[in-house]
Amino acid sequence: MASSAPIDDVLDNLQLVGISVSHFLLELLANKKYINHIAVKDILHHRQQIVDALLTSAEESPRTKLKWAMDLIKDICAREMVVLSAKESGYHFDVVHTAPEQLEDFSIEELAKDMEKFAPVTWDFLDTTLSARTQRKTGAVKDCNEHQLMAGMDSDEEAYWEELGEGDLEGIISGLTNDAESSLENQRKAKALLLVVNLQRKVMVMSIMMRSTNQRSNTLQSLVGMFLQSTHTPQKVIEMLE
User: Are 187 and 177 in contact (CB under 8 A)?
Assistant: First the structure.
């Protein structure tokens, strides 16, 4: 184990010049004068170890230890939703002035791409929370993403899954992936289905969050409402879904 003498010398010198350790670190990281200093680069390079050390040394409950991290994530997610629900994102939908081309050109896949682009932290958070149990059982597909799967799924595969229906998704996927005699192709389809359905769920949840943040950010809700009206869905059902 390395001697603590050098550390004691640094602490003594900080005390001598009247600067606390916390003030020294905060000033070092916040002052643009030191942005390229080797000390700053070293701190940033080892930030994960520093955070781990802080969590290990703190004598609080796990919830208290992580409060700063949770507050940070909440702030980031809130900022992302403000950006995503702003008019500039292109998802303020005016039903009265809707053109046929807007309906024809609408794409869940494109909406999902924009959600991931403008709110990456929120998107990743939902990805984990909406499929945590299933991902633990089957493992996530890491060599491709939902957008590629949605774009690459051929008509035969789409028809297969439409006929099968979502049903008990966990049961379907678990059965296909755990069966020793199940083909690799079935396992690929099962995991692909998980990602595609998870994408659709994330779009739905984030659309609700967008509308909650900004009432004018209502593209998906408006399109669903128009579909329900066109299929003569009872008004009470439409009002309940709102």
Answer: yes
